Structure formats: structure tokens, C-alpha cells
Amino acid sequence: MVSKKIGFTKLIFGFIVILSITFFSAIYSSLTIKDNSKTILHINNDIYPFMDKLAKFEQITLKSKMLITNWVYLQYNIDDKEELKKIISEDYPKIKKQILSSLNKAGHEDNREDLLNIFNLMDSLLVIEKGIMQTLVSFDDYQNPIKVFEGEEVIESQVIPLSKEISDLTEKFIIHTKKQNDIIRDNMLQSLNKLEKTAFIFGFGMFIIILLSVIYIQRNITAPILKVHNILIKLSRGEIVHQKIEKAEDVIAHMADALNKLSENLNQTALNASAIGQGNFDTEIKLLSEQDVLGNAILEMRKSLKEYSEEMEAKVKERTIEIRKQKEIIEAKNKDITASISYAERIQTASLPSLDIIEEELNEYFILFKPKDIVSGDFYWFTKIDDLFIIAAIDCTGHGVPGAFMSLVGLNLLSAIVLENHITEPHMILEELHKRVQSALRQSSTANQDGMDAAICVINKKKNIVEFSGARNPLIYIQNNEIYKIKGDRKSVGGKQSAAKSFTKHTVNIETDTSFYIFSDGYQDQFGGPNNRKFMVKNMYKMFMENHHKPMKEQQIIYNDIIESWMSLTDQIDDILLIGFKL
């Protein structure tokens, strides 16, 4: 009896062990999958939106730097100015509030001090930008070189370095945040891998238990039954049996099959969970029963992930279609606008004086003319009247279409002043041009303050002299390998200027070979080079000195190559006009 009880107890104990392993495996797998589902929802609902807000803040930082730079250098870019005001008053406060409010949900509360430091720097940057905006407001402010210079200095010394510091700190914060997010994702993947390995171990363990159970049953149940069977056969034939049979307890014959099925199902469950985690939402899930906790949890996870994936795909498709439509509309409008501007370019080009006139008078000359936006606010003008040859480089307010309109006004007025009214002294030409621009634009009764900067040279070959007058723009000339500069008067053509202040006439003797250069401010103000700074007038002096002895046409190629190389990594910011001639 003792042996029988021990044998039966072993069978019961083995069955309990198998059930315990199955139960704990199911509970462990269910909890792991639920935790991973929560992690996925946390990533999608909290972490990804938080990262999007950080990226938007980084874009706002870069955009504010660009727009405040445009504020200083581009007086009439109204859209950029309004956008900068909106960033300061609306966009930045909004994104700052959103980031701080979502910091805790995203699981980065420990990084709040770093984030507050970035926002403090951004607040300081916006204070600096507001100061620039309050300094450069009206046309007179932009005509005040001290204010403009101070604005440029603040951009160079404060805005650009501080913007870079903010961008670097933000990028560092984003990288740190991504690393923390990657840790969360890696932990989730490790958890799924651990689940897969655990299920495999449980299955293998149950296989061993089943194998041992089969051996035990074979040894303690099947063998005795066979012995009983053999004895019964012998007895049925009338044989006398001397063998004694020990009694054995019966055991459930199908236990091995049930355990094998359980082992297979656990292994299949682990494979299904891994496949769903990789995005295979069509993976077939077979429930062991209606009360299959693990199977139902996997089905719920598959449904949740599939719905979220389909929702995201639909949003992406919707946004892609919307962006494509907007792109087509913008491209169509750009095509129409470009066609109109190209036609305006032909009109402007036809309005400029014919090069045949200058070819007859000057053997050595060049005109480097590079509009920023197809049509130009800069223009050149020359004509011959009596024994005089007059050549001018004019820089109108603005560039593109507005500047081109002003250039047509200037071309017509210059022709009328010189050819119709026979005014040939450069300072008198500027005085008359000043009055006629004010009259043509009705500047005494309107808010219009558009005007021109100019450099005019009158060449008198009989007297071997060149007379020059400038409205803000200078004349550079080189004699006997020495470079000289005649500054233009600090007065523009047009706008509200002091009536008492008149333009000055300067005279240059040309008894020896002399190279002359007149230009707008587009060349010297162009940003570029390794540090993205202005080219500056001093570099133009150096450039002229190194090349003035060369033919003018060759100089034109050299100066064009220099400025193209200088702005190879940035955009052209203004029209460029440079005229050179040698007498």
C-alpha cells in the first residue's frame, strides 16, 4: 500500500507542477504584453508629440534668427516683419507652454532645468530682437547709418551666437531625449524577447516533464497492466500461474497528449506575440478557450495596434494628398508670377541704354549686372551729349518688381534731365533727379519715401577730367598704382531730405592712365565666405588693386567669379551692379 500511495502522489504532484507552470506562464505573458501595450501607447500619445514640439521649437529659433536678420537688412520685407512679430507674441509662448505642460507626461521631468535654461536663453534672444525691432521702425531709422550699424552689430555679436547656443542646447536636449526614448523602446523589445525565451523554456520544461511522466507511466502503470493481461491469457488457456502481481493505481491515459498540446500552444503564443510586435497584424490567433487570458490579451493588443497603425496611415495619406494639392497650386502660381516677371525683365532690359553708345566712347569698360530676382532695382545709364559722356550706377529702393518700377522711373527722368533739359553737371543732375522723383511719387503729400542712391560720372576727354557726384555711393579710382575714394554725399535721391543740403561735384584729372569703379551696395553687402559675413568695401579695394592693371573685360570675369564663390553657400540678398572703365 505504501508504494501505491507514493506512486499516485507522484502523478498528482507532476500534474500540479505542469498546471502551475502553465498558469504562471500565462500570467507572466499577459502582464508582459499589457505592459508593452501601455509602453506603445505612451510612446505614441506622449513621447512622439513631445519630440514634435521640440522640433517645432528648434524651427522657431532658426526662423527668428533669419527674420530679425531680414529686419535689419531688408527694410521693406513687411511679410517677414509680421511673421517675426507673430513668432514673438504667439508662436513661441504657445510652443513653450505646450512643451512644459507635456514634459512630465513624456517622462522627462528630470530634464526640466535643462529645458528652462534653453527657454531663458530664448527669452533673452527675443528681448534683444525686440530691441532691434524698436530701433529700426521707420524709413528715417533705416537711413540712419548709426542705427543700422548698431543693428548689424547686434546681429553679428549677440543674435547669431545666442541663436547658435540655443540651437546647440536644443539639439543636445533632443539627442538626450531620444536616447531616453530609445531606452524605453529597447526595454520593450527586450521584454518581448524575454517573453519569447520564457515561453520556449516553459515549453521545453513541460516537454521534459511529459517525457518523464511517460516513462513513469510506462514503468508503473502500463507494465503492470500488461502483466495482468498476460496472466489473464494464460488463465484463459487453463494454465497455472505462479507469478504474483502487485496492484497499481490507474492514471489518466491522455495526460501526455494534453501536456504536449499545452507546450505547442505556449510556443505558438510566443511566436504570435513576436510577429504582432513586428507589425504583422494578420497573424492568426487561436484561443484555447473563451477563458484563455493570454490569447485574449494578445487579440486585444493586435486590435489596438492595428487600429492605431491604420489611423496613422490614413492621416499620412490625407496629409500627403493635401500637401500635393498645395504644391500644385503654388507651382502654378509661381509659374504665372515668374512668367510675368520674365516679361517685365524684357521690358526693363529694353529700357536700358544700348551698349553701342558706350562701345563708341570707351574702349576699356565692363558692366557686372546681377539682378537678385530676375528684374532689378539697380540699373546703369549712360549717354553722350555734346563733347561729354555721362555714365551712372543707380540703386533704387528695394529689389525685384518694386525696385524695377523705380528703375523705370529713374531711366525716364535721367533721359529727360540730360537730353531734353541739357543739364550735364553731375551734382545738378542729382539735384534735378531728386526734385523730379519727389514730384513723380508725390512724396510731399503721401507716405511714400522711396528713392535712389547713385554715382554719376561725367567724362570730358577734351579737358582730361572726370566730374563725379554721388548720392551715398562713392567713386573709386586708381592712378599710379594708388587707390583713391571719393565719398558720395550722405543724401539720397527722393524721400524727405533736407532742402538746404545739396550734392557736391568732385573733379579728377586723368592725365595718366586711370581706372574708375562705381557700384551699388549689393556687392559689398553680400553675405558669404567661411563665416557667412559681408564681403565689405575693404575687400573690394583689395580686389581692385590686385586686378586694375588687367583688361576691363578680364576684370569683369574675375569679379563675377569672386562674388559667385563668396555666396556659394548662401542666397544673393540684393541686386549687384559694378561698373568699371579705364581712361
Q: Return the structural class.
A: alpha+beta
Q: What profile does the largest beta sheet have?
A: 5 strands, antiparallel
**How much beta, percentage-wise?**
5-15%
N-to-C span: 133 Å
User: Number of domains in the coordinates?
Assistant: 2
The shape is rod-shaped
Number of DSSP strand runs: 12
Gyration radius from CA atoms, angstroms: 44 Å
> Which parts are unreliable, with pLDDT below 50 for 5 consecutive residues or more?
250-256
Provide structural commentary.
The chain has 583 residues and is α+β, with helices and mostly antiparallel strands. It has 2 domains: 2-278, no CATH class; 353-582, 4-Layer Sandwich (Phosphatase 2c, domain 1), CATH 3.60.40. Helix content is 63%, strand content 12%. It has 12 helices and 12 strands. The chain has helices spanning 2-73, 78-102, 112-135, 139-143, 145-236, 255-277, 293-351, 355-361, 400-420, 426-440, 537-547, 552-566, and strands at residues 365-370, 378-385, 388-396, 452-460, 465-471, 475-479, 482-486, 506-509, 514-519, 527-528, 533-534, 576-582. The strands form 3 sheets. The protein has a 5-stranded antiparallel β-sheet, covered by helices on one side. Strands 2-3-4-5-8 form a 5-stranded antiparallel β-sheet, with helices on both faces. A hairpin with a 2-residue loop joins strand 6 (475-479) and strand 7. The termini are far apart. Mean pLDDT is 82; it is low at 250-256.
